[in-house]
Design a protein that fits this description.
Length: 302
């Protein structure tokens, strides 16, 4: 496993040094793109999982953190500019990846800021080993969209199989990643300010979804195949097993089911929390508000 410097002209970033991490999993090498910006204590910044997942969604937050931290933001395997092979995307892949990446890139426990579905993976690694010194979870979730809507595992599996199929799958995926559909989803539960959901913004998101192989990891996420835990009790048990400080940022306009899960999380002893404007995409929509909300926690010695 190695890291290589990428030409900034060949990669779409937020102004940092763009590198690739060559990672081997099950006899297959995956190219994982990550970007480093700033100087200071290392900080790992993890975007959420979604059909439009990319490190650019945390790019503005990275720039705000960069004066005080050396920020490392990744494109998860199967998303963004990273490799998108037709793997059976499942939690083991991301559990192994995160553990290997942290070990390869950092030589000391680091602060981690994780959005959305990245929460479970961060918590699992933190419980397993001393990888992180502090954890901030932004609008954390643990259950994919279809299971949240009440779909059974059997239905989710059928949908995932259809999207993975060669011709029908491509057609279904394209129908669910049209610019009008992406705009609808952003308005429904990702952003709260409709003025920010401009045609050019949606076009960039759409472009991300149209990369070769994009449907495989996306289908896994939507159907719950990237759910690292399968019950609220398991998620909360991870938090209760932590030995490092944890802070949770909640968007006041989060979808009802997600908000209930977040409320249960922050009700646990020792969990610091704050509610700010926004929904599931609060880290992208309100990066300055996020930073202001977590600043004391970031710089405290506790």
């Amino acid at each position: 496993m190695s890291t290589n410097l990428l030409s900034t002209s060949a990669a779409i970033g937020f102004g940092g040094v763009v590198q690739e991490y060559l990672w081997n999993f099950e006899n297959q090498q995956l190219r994982v793109v990550y970007e480093t910006l700033g100087k200071g204590s290392p900080l790992l910044l993890l975007p959420s999982f979604s059909s439009v997942s990319t490190r650019l969604e945390v790019g503005e937050l990275a720039k705000l953190l960069a004066p005080n931290f050396q920020v490392v933001a990744i494109d998860w395997p199967g998303f963004g500019e990273s490799s998108r092979p037709s793997l059976n995307y499942r939690p083991e892949i991301y559990q192994h990846f995160l553990e290997d990446f942290v070990k390869a890139v950092f030589n000391t426990p680091v602060t981690v800021v994780a959005a959305g579905h990245a929460a479970s993976y961060v918590l699992q690694l933190a419980v397993k080993q001393a990888a992180f010194s502090k954890i901030i979870l932004l609008a954390p979730t643990w259950r994919g969209p279809l299971p949240t809507m009440g779909a059974s595992q059997q239905i989710a599996s059928i949908v995932r199989g259809l999207v993975r199929s060669p011709i029908l799958g491509q057609a279904l995926y394209k129908l669910n990643t049209t610019q009008s559909f992406l705009s609808f989803m952003y308005r429904r539960h990702v952003f709260t300010d409709a003025a920010k959901i401009t045609p050019s913004f949606i076009e960039k998101k759409w472009h991300t979804t149209q990369q070769p192989g994009a449907r495989f990891a996306s289908a896994a996420f939507v159907t719950g195949n990237l759910d690292a835990v399968h019950a609220q009790s398991d998620f909360l048990e991870l938090v209760q097993s932590l030995t490092v400080p944890l802070m949770v940022v909640i968007g006041e306009s989060s979808p009802p089911k997600s908000r209930e899960e977040m409320n249960a999380l922050v009700a646990l002893p020792g969990v610091r929390s704050v509610v700010i404007p926004g929904s599931l995409g609060l880290h992208e929509e309100y990066p300055a508000v996020v930073l202001a909300a977590v600043e004391d926690f970031l710089f405290s010695n506790k």
